[in-house]
Records
---
Amino acid sequence: MADAARYHRLQRRLSLLAFVVSTAYLLALLFTPEGRALARGVAGAAEWRWAQVALVAMALVAVHSALTLPLGLVQGYWLPRRFGLLHQPLGAWLIDRVKAALIGGVLGLAAIEAVYALLAITPLWWLWASAVFFVAQVALIAVLPIWIAPLFYRLKPLADPRLRERLLALARRVGVDAVGVFVADQSRKSRTANAAVVGLGRTRRIILFDTLLADFPLEEIESVLAHELGHHVHGDVPRGLLVNGALSVVTFGLAGLALDAGVPLLGLTGRDDPAGLPWLALVVVALALAQLPLGNGFSRWRERRADDFSLATTGDAAAFIGAMERLGRLNLAEPSPSRFREIVFYSHPALERRIARARGGLA
Ligand SMILES: [Zn+2]
């Protein structure tokens, strides 16, 4: 476990460094005469408002990517390889990153254009933007398993007949008619194991990494599946969407106040001035950070409920504990992070806590 502690300590330091670099970059753009002239100059290079917004956004991201590229390589490739978590060759890893960047870039640019279009036409832009984001997020979650996941994994329906039978029996016991289970070929890239409920409505399904199927005893896979079925039965995907929707209303509302305050402060021509984009980015990053404990607190609560569901359904605490310990070893999980780190950064309860809760159920 010394390895896990060291790995996470290194990753934390690098994340902090990346955060400092990003924040310093945005502050330099906003509060130095050269930075402001740059943002103004880039915005002035186009005639139409939407083109100005696109130019400023792309310049902002391009320079930021160049600044943080070395850190991204160390954090995403070199360190995980060093600690045995990743065996994907550099070329394949880079292709995955480029695909993710393209998807993120197109969606991000569409989001920024939508926000600036709304900023220009209505003072209630923050409510409209929240509504647009909510609909976009629903659509994205719905297409994730059928359009996006296949870009990164080969997905096949679960074939193992014993496991299928166990799963169907489990699902029947908890009153779920049918839910597809797909296996993703994670083993091509990494030894890490995971499972998740993804999609919405007709695209909803459980995805298992093949690394889980290869290394885990049947009872342990069953307890992981029961946890995922718990998310399914509890409707955690729609719940999560609603929580994100509520948080985005708060984010856009507060960002609106900050944008208005930034007009005199930063010499912008109005709240929809594309040169104000670095300011909006800084405010949104700060708000997202401030909301981390809320979103993660909600997620840990749903994860605890899914754990309880798994234990109650299988009645096999030993298998649950075995699965948690095996996942912890494979994924090099931090067994007992500080309470502060858990509250702010952890979407799942710390492993130690999940195991202790299962032991409590045993007693
Ligand atoms: Zn879960």
---
Amino acid sequence: MESIWSKTCEIGKKEALKGDIQADTVVIGGGMAGLLTAYELERSGIRTVVLEAGRIGGGQTKNTTAKITSQHGLYCRTFIEKKGKDTAEKYVQANQAAIKEYKKVICDEKIDCDLTEADAYVYSQDAEKIESEAAAARELGINASVEKQIEIPVSCAGAVKFPDQALFHPLKFMRALSEKLTVYEGSRVTEVEENLVRTACGSVRADKIVFATHFPFVNFPGMYFARMHQERSYVLALENAGTLEGMYIGDGKDSLSFRQYGKYVLLGGRGHRTGESEGGGKYEGGSYEGLREAARRLYPGSREAACWSAQDCITADQVPFIGRYAQDRPDWLVATGFQKWGMTSSMVSAMILRDIICKKENDHAEVFSPSRFSSEELPQIVKDSGKAVKGLTKRFFHIPDESLEQLRPGHGGVVETESGKAGVYKEEDGQIYQVDIVCPHLGCELVWNPDEKTWDCPCHGSRFDYEGNLLEGPAQEGICYE
Ligand SMILES: Cc1cc2nc3c(=O)[nH]c(=O)nc-3n(C[C@H](O)[C@H](O)[C@H](O)COP(=O)(O)OP(=O)(O)OC[C@H]3O[C@@H](n4cnc5c(N)ncnc54)[C@H](O)[C@@H]3O)c2cc1C
């Protein structure tokens, strides 16, 4: 399940860190947020090193849909009502500034990344909501309008249009950016101690440390695990589905996302909280099948050229956490909680973190500050604390033969044994893979995801393949038996 971006762009491999080095700033994580932060810092004269556990862009960024827009759903009216006009305005301005900065960087560095200017639309069945959102967006300084007719084949009362947004190829952009930076790949950070960052084969001592790891993996201080959850969604690249000028997203739970890349329409959707896969439930065959059903309905003559999925961190108040990691760690900074709008949010992060490190005023920083407290966070904390199970030590259980016989080939699930629960997957050829279903991050019980044949954490969104290898954090180790 390779994205269209991975299929069409190879990034040359970089060496791993070997030995102990020093830098002004070390950025942990070579995704969009990490590379942009490193780039903005280097441009300001700050010597920066990036440590990436795997490959550049190999986290969520390779599976994005890469719309560069400040239109993050229908949020302007809600933000004005809940946070006040000043905060809402700063949120919008920060994202508009991010779009401008992308265009500037791409132009200054002459980056060939298929940048296309395009308008962004949110469509809805609710005509009043659309009118109200467009008016709110205009109050916040966006030249927004209501469009009654849109080019995608969905039924709706209309759409709010934000003009002059952009689309690009995220990996082509990152490939060019990485050539200007010091990046070590295959260098997972295993420990962070004040101003020292350690990997298996070396360390970096730096004045400032930026956590751009998608989900911050140091639990205390910060407690980001209690302030965010993760949501997955799915994408199909469709051939023979026509051509779109704009980018689109629907309002509401079952909304779909549309954009063009080359000859493909990228159709996204069927999102759910990680660990709550729809497989075997609403859609026969799971979330991918749900999306395929939509593709057949909307684009009857189309052909699927690729499919993939990704997940993102969701905060309770819909605003990312960008700024100081925690009160008692003045040299640690963080960029996370992008709400599936990580292209502009990564650039907003890069600009805010650059200004904090360079001791410059930034008008937008306060809105994104992780030290803000929102009462909307409390129900989430209570909900997740119930999902933790005891004991983080790996346990191997003897699985009764009859349980294994009942499991169909190609399927996985939780099996009860005399001494506890175990996770089992049966290959098509009958081979059995057993894992411990206690998440090594904070001890939540993992659930089987039939869509992707993975073990997913319903609390914080860590994921593991059926052999137990780590796919996505915040966990930093797998669940296989040595
Ligand atoms: C289906 C889908 C579609 C989306 N489409 C859009 C869109 O159209 N527009 C938009 O704005 N946003 C979109 N998003 C959101 C966007 O893709 C993400 O927010 C963004 O890619 C996150 O970038 P990142 O750098 O924070 O994380 P990542 O790309 O995941 O980078 C984090 C990196 O940190 C590394 N890492 C982790 N732990 C360590 C460690 N201990 N040591 C060293 N390295 C480590 C990982 O290997 C990884 O490479 C979408 C999200 C989804 C789920």
